[in-house]
Amino acid sequence: MVKKGEDELKCFEEMKLKGVSPDAITFACSLKACACIGALSRGIEIHGEIEKTGLIGRDSIVGNALIGMRNVATSLKPRSCFIVFVSEMSSHGMHSLPDM
After folding, report:
1. What is the pLDDT of residue 19?
2. Chain Cα centroid distance, residue 16
3. How far apart are the first and last CA of the chain?
4. Angle, helices 60-74/78-94, rounded to nearest 10 degrees
5. Helix 60-74 vs helix 40-53: angle between axes, to the nearest 10 degrees?
6. Burial 28-48 (b: 16+ CB within 10 A, else e)
7. Mean pLDDT across the chain, nearest whole number?
8. What is the rounded average pLDDT of the residues 34-49?
9. Domain boundaries in the chain?
10. Cβ–Cβ under 8 Å, residues 59 and 24
11. 89 to 10, 29, 49: CA distances (angstroms)
12. Burial class (CB in 10 A: 0-12, 13-18, 19+), 65
């Protein structure tokens, strides 16, 4: 699993070097990769990049990925799992997606 996360982050960096701007899905996948390999500091850097794009607060996929990355990387208490669940349910409702 660590190898996969490292490969995903490498691909993310290569995209940016080639001038490809990350979108919400790219950011979400990169944050998940950070969580998989326990790269909290890299996740925080990506969080900063996301803030510059204005996606925080506008895109629930990115918001959920940020919460998930921080939960995994910092091992937050069960209360945070509830926050993630509410956030995911909100996302499903906003996008008319079927229940989980």
Report:
1. 96
2. 17
3. 24
4. 170
5. 160
6. bbbbbbbbbbebeebbeebbe
7. 78
8. 89
9. 2-94
10. yes
11. 31, 19, 26
12. buried
